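Bench log. Compound arrived from synthesis this morning; before running ITC I wanted a structural hypothesis for how iron/sulfur cluster sits in the protein. Inputs:
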Amino acid sequence: MYDPKSLKAGDFICHDEVMSTLAYAEQNKTNVAFIDTLIAKAKERKGLNHREAAVLLDCSLQDRKQEIFDLARQIKQDFYGNRIVMFAPLYLSNYCINSCVYCPYHRQNGHIQRKKLSQEDIAREVAALQDMGHKRLAIESGEDPKMNPIEYILESIQTIYGVKHKNGAIRRANVNIAATSVQDYTKLRDAGIGTYILFQETYHQKSYEQLHPAGPKHDYAWHTEAMDRAMEGGIDDVGLGVLFGLENYRYEFVALLMHAEHLEAVHGVGPHTISVPRIRAADDIDPKTFANGISDDLFADIVACTRIAVPYTGMIVSTRESKECRARVLGLGISQISGGSRTSVGGYYDLEPEAKSSAQFEVNDTRSLDEVVAWLMELGYIPSFCTACYREGRTGDRFMALCKSGQIQNCCHPNALMTLKEYLMDYARPQTADRGDALIVSEMDNIPNPKVRALVSEHLLDIQNGNRDFRL
Ligand code: SF4
Ligand code: SF4
């Protein structure tokens, strides 16, 4: 029985409700009057429920689809402006006891190079990431209680925050590790993590169990209920995601929104972010063996409809996607991207080819962070290295309230300019710095409040004079 308030996975991701929603979307996908009502509702910028969003995703009427894209673009602009937050993944260990059939770290893969970073290795990796200009990381690790116990993850977080190399610092470490207990989530909260990220991979229980034939991840309920335990453990910000390509995209889209509705219904706050990874080639993995791969056009539809359905949730796209694809979806709702990523364990410091053999998947966008920064500015975006919210205690429902009211923009835009200035001073190539300085000058006019404008002006000068870490 479908119940978004239930704490049981089978109730809040109710298979029958997903199937009935898909039938409902199929019935209504050419119902122009109804689609117009939904678009009008979406224009109120309060989101759509999973049934309503499913109809828009299925809509194939070209003029209405264009309206959906235009609205996604406008909502993105209203809530996020033109800033794009930058981050990088940091792989700590690829030891894993699970058997996910789409991931080269699965335990049966005997020829991938297994690596686990020591604390000294992590310090070197973090210094290399800081030398690129990164301030925000997503920590990744396989699940292996012996090799990567929670104590190892906690010590690693401490190491990451402790590295102060030149003007660099990691100011926000998000964590993407296996589903764990309430007690362990509390430990992660106490270690000062930003967002806890866990991809569902697929919400379709039968497929999920086939794709995870052994190991603790095989337990669908344990995995699907992880965000509730994380929130019970005191983590305010959680990040959802599915791996598109494993199951039918319509099923995943609907269930993902049901999961967001569940978090809102139970905890009063929806997901902080939603990631939209697509399956990629990797050692021992051929994405062609997965029948549910989606085209770039469908991918764009999914991003636009997600943006409309949950306007206040950050959306993340990684270097799994090509430059062209990233350019397209940035306009439709993506607010955060990675740049200069290495998906191998130790890949930032150790650029030897052997590092590739420990990679989780092939990176599609292989440009350096500076190239990505310059490119974003060319496209009219402000690359942002902001990490202010969680450091200012703006998390969970406090953050969501500011976000829903649109007031967060008054912080995001000035913080983007100040953190970009730090990047330009410390890490950018001369041509990137010139372009960035010109962008900052022109963007200053877009700070509406004269007091804030004066404060930012003052801090930009402070940064020019060697001071760092200003934030609103
Ligand atoms: Fe392990 Fe995660 Fe890869 Fe599964 S997806 S094999 S849990 S690292
Ligand atoms: Fe993100 Fe908050 Fe910074 Fe805005 S002010 S970019 S929401 S951390």
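What the model suggests: The radius of gyration is 21 Å. The longest strand covers residues 83-93.
ITC booked for Thursday regardless.
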